[in-house]
Amino acid sequence: MVTLLLYYNVNYNLNEWMKMTAELSYEKFFLEPNSPRHKHYEILRARFVEKLPVKEVAKKFNIKFYTVQTCIRDFKKSFESNQNSSFFISSKTGPKKDRKKPEVRDDVILLRARGYANTDIYQALLLAEKKVSISLIDQVLRENGLIGLGKRTREEQYRVKREIESREIPGLTIPIVAPELPKVANVNELDLSKEFKLYSRVAGIFLFIPFLLSAQLPKIIEKAGIPGSKMIPALSYFLSLLTLKLLDKERKSHITDWNFDEALGLFAGLNVLPKKSASIDYSYRLSEDHHELLLSEWGKAVFPQLCPDASTFALDFHSIPHRSDNSSLENHWVPMRGKATKSVLSFFAQSIESPMLCYATADILRNEQDEMPLRFVEYWKKIAGVKPNWLYFDSKLTTYKTLNKLQENNINFITVRTRGQKIIKDLLQRPGSDWKAAFIDTPTRKHKRLKYIDDQVKLRNYQGFCRQIAVTGLSRAQPTLFITNNNKITGREVIQRYISRNYIENELGINVNFFHMDCLSSEIRLNVNLDVILTVVANGCYRWLAKNLKGCQKMEPKQLYRKIVETGGYVINKENEIIIQLDRRSHMPIVKQALLDKENPKIPWLNGKKLRFEFL
Questions:
Q1: Which residues fall within 8 angstroms of residue 446, CB to CB, at 6 or more apart?
Q2: Contacts for 441-448 with beta carbons within 8 Å, 24 or more apart?
Q3: Counting CB atoms within 10 angstroms of each CB, which of 31, 323, 350, 477 has the fewest?
Q4: What is the pTM of this model?
Q5: Are 299 and 538 a contacting pair, CB within 8 Å?
Q6: Mean pLDDT throughout 429-448?
Q7: Above 80 in pLDDT, residue 118?
């Protein structure tokens, strides 16, 4: 009994002690304020309510006398000007959060992504029975950094207007059903017996089909003997890779967005384009014989259409750098880096009469590069039946020994000779009477008045004499030395001919940039070779399109892609034909005028269906 009483007594005292401790903590909160605003309030209350002197207030709160005086002065000043200090926060009445904004936020962002202006978004939301103010739409756009719409094309404005008028707005009034993963490319899943309608933002790619049919691409692929599979035939494999070149796609590892476009799969004769793994691995299945046959058969079929009178060619190397320190590739000079680095050396030949790529290869070793002009001569003789008449190239492309072989084959050449100090010194000591004046009538050239000396010189490993023309006035401090084996044309014509090569060099740079040749696809030269050959084929496609569009002959591939190929439209599969309905754009009248489908070509890889273009 005593023990029980002691227990209750101790427990009662403990509870009382805890209550007292809590009371002291509450009291301490008011007597010892922590926040500056609370402390400021207690100082003023002690002075004006408790009537304590200023010195005692300073001592109570452990602050300086002058601080208390400043606090009192500021309070009186604000009070007399009816600007009471806000020591207490007043709660606002009304809703505590946005009610409409969360409901329409996703819709506003989606419509802005589709090119809708603020007023267009307002009208579209009304159609979906979501009435909000334009100011609320502006707030949502500002919060998400989408306030600037930018200038829209007439085609984009027309599309938005059409969607609002038809009340068919994808993602708002019409649900968007998008798979999380693209389908697997399989020719067996392409059912052309049923009618269907597909939309593609690059439906203009179908404009190339008449050219591929006129070149008899299926026969070219068959003769080349490139491999295929039961799911992806050889022709579909080639067309799918060519599609990526034609669509300005930088890397095969970035093609997932195209894998959802079933219209592009139809272009290649498939349900969808192959995924990146299939596209990347395909180059490993091709051999050097496949590449040579593919390039030669393409040349035989295409060059009679695009450059039947080609006889003059500009030759050049291009180094494709490899961004790895552990690469086994050889070092080659890369002008963009200003040094020799690990790279794949590619070789190109371009026609002067019609600036297009005629030959390309990337399977070159350092000890083979001097023989590349001779390899091109054999290639052109094989596909055209005649040897090239003229070859233009720079001094580092080959050696004097190869120049001698070109001379033996009766092939005219013009190149540049390396300027040695002794050669330049002797030229500068020549009297002024030895220099002949020449006027270069190239319209866009800045330096047109030149002087030159025409001589016969002896070169190492070159039998007989070679003609040398030393030229001043070409915006260089020292004379430029041209050498040629042709003694019939004038010195002025030699200069004029080689100057035209500069424009061809620019053309090569344009192709390198647009077709992304510097995006090295592999460390294996043989694999890179397929990418280079695809560049030749894609360049031919764009040259054909430019040739057939009135007034567009001088357009670069990038301009053609942006203005014509990158045109949205519907691809409609009918019983006996494929109809391409291209959206309204400023350059579509030119395409309509060209009548690219006037022969109603049949597409072998699409069950022989005819192709027809319609323009909205």
A1: 475
A2: 442/496, 442/499, 445/499, 446/475, 447/473, 447/474, 447/475
A3: 477
A4: 0.70
A5: no
A6: 76
A7: yes
